[in-house]
Amino acid sequence: MNTRILLVEDEPAIAEIVEFALTSEGFQVLWRSLARDAETELAAGSCDLLILDLGLPDGSGLELLKRLRRVSELPTLILSARNAELDRVLGLELGADDYVTKPFSPRELAARVKAILKRASRPAAVVETGSAETSFDLDEVRAVIRYRGHALNLTRYEYLLLKTLLAQPERVFSRAQLMDQAWPDPAASFDRAVDTHIKTLRAKLREIDPQCDPIRTHRGLGYSAQLRNLP
Question: Which domain holds residue 134?
């Protein structure tokens, strides 16, 4: 069965270009021009990826994405004429996997779609780190990290940052390296975004154990996960 892509775009000329580019690559494209029709298709759960315009006649694409992320991690690419940094950052923060601005290259769009689908199809795993008492348990199937037996209530980027740090304990990751792992398009974000997410992540860890800080700051270098000799 072909991979099904839901395209939500109100301009027929652009929809035709996208549809041609993706069907040429073997994808099946379902086009909808209104947010309400798109939500009907999303509720049916028959699509493998969403391409979403932001300026729709009956609502905001960002609001549609926000509602979608409450119930689904469906891979999503935003395709929009809005090219301001704030729009790109907001779209990615709300859970988009990539952001492409108009005008765009159809070949590049198809390549980005294939890259998102490849990432989404990677085998899931469960990784345990540390001792029984102090372990972080990473469950990639459910996208959940447990600390000392407690499931952490993490945002998308907190989860990806902590997952990256835990994959190689004691390795110092620069902000740029962390952004490469956690942000689909690091150029659309900024270094301080890493600091902000690390700060909120630490606060959530302290709620479970106020005496322990497993994330170490290396001034001028970046961050690492320190799991040895935890109390």
Answer: 126-225
